[in-house]
Design a protein that fits this description.
The protein is α/β, with parallel strands linked by helices and 285 residues long. It has 10 helices and 7 strands. It has a 7-stranded parallel β-sheet, with helices on both faces. Helix 1 packs parallel to helix 2.
Length: 285
């Protein structure tokens, strides 16, 4: 799939407007029952990496609650239909994670709807392009942290009473936390904060048997690209990924299996770690 020049007029973008459509799960992917009986929450689960993770979890047997914004209801309904087609319980929780009270409501609603909680995927996020630090307003800086960082803390805190030994928290960070991005200073800063949060919380929860890990994607074909870089220059979207060693942008279907691994018993001795899915971009850490 070759990205086309395009832009979208709102963040984090709409899956249904992405051209060409992203691939969320490969037709060849066969579930092996790795997550049968598990109950999972995926924030930003209506589209992009979040949708892909939710679909892979469902194919592995997990019941899934997705969380998304009210303006993403169309994408959310499509994702719910895809999840239910896998034969699992699927539930959507609609609201704004920037509201300090909403994360606790998410956990409570998901526990009731699914009958428990074993996996929390903190994936929802936004980014805004700014090639000059002077272009980043106080409001934009706060917007990044209010969306990308604070909900991760609040959701994890609210989830802890429900997470027993063997449970898992998985956070979505970014290659930009490790290599930086001159056009995404605010976004990269939030992703660095997520790395610190993941590694510190993993140490705190290790004795409880709750594992905390993260996935650091490189350029992946999602609507957030068209809604950020596309609004600067639509051609930037079409060229995205060409500079990475593999010479192309990745698909959500190529990232999501890393979350399956981290959520499953296969990763029972893995905590505080980062899986880099970035087309070969060199990183330290």
């Amino acid at each position: 799939m070759t990205p086309l020049p395009q832009s979208q007029d709102r963040m984090p973008g709409r899956e249904s407007e992405l051209m060409p459509p992203a691939e969320h799960i490969k037709p060849s992917y066969r579930g092996a029952g790795r997550l049968v009986g598990k109950k999972a929450i995926v924030t930003g689960g209506d589209s992009g990496i979040g949708r892909a993770v939710a679909l892979h979890f469902a194919r592995e047997g997990a019941d899934v609650a997705i969380v998304h914004m009210p303006m993403e209801i169309d994408d959310g309904e499509q994702t719910l239909a895809l999840l239910r087609a896998e034969g699992v319980t699927a539930h959507a929780i609609v609201g704004d994670l920037r509201n300090p009270d909403f994360p606790a409501q998410v956990i409570e609603q998901a526990v009731v709807a699914l009958g428990g909680l074993d996996i929390l995927v903190n994936n929802a996020g936004i980014q805004k392009v700014a090639d000059d630090l002077a272009m980043i307003s106080d409001e934009d800086w706060a917007w990044h942290f209010d969306t990308n960082v604070h909900p991760m803390f609040r959701l994890s805190r609210a989830a802890l009473p429900y997470l027993s030994r063997g449970a898992s928290i998985i956070n979505t960070t970014s290659v930009n936390a490790y290599v930086g991005n001159a056009s995404l200073v605010a976004y990269s800063s939030t992703k660095g904060a997520q790395v610190g949060f993941t590694r510190a919380l993993s140490l705190q929860l290790a004795s409880r048997g709750v594992r905390v890990n993260e996935v650091a994607p490189g350029p992946i074909w999602t609507s957030i690209q068209a809604a950020s870089f596309g609004n600067v220059d639509p051609q930037l979207v079409a060229d995205m990924g060409k500079s990475v060693p593999m010479g192309r942008i990745g698909q959500p279907s190529e990232v999501a299996p890393a979350y399956v691994y981290l959520a499953s018993e296969d990763a029972s001795y893995v905590t505080g770690q980062t899986i880099h899915v970035n087309g070969g971009m060199p990183v330290n850490g």
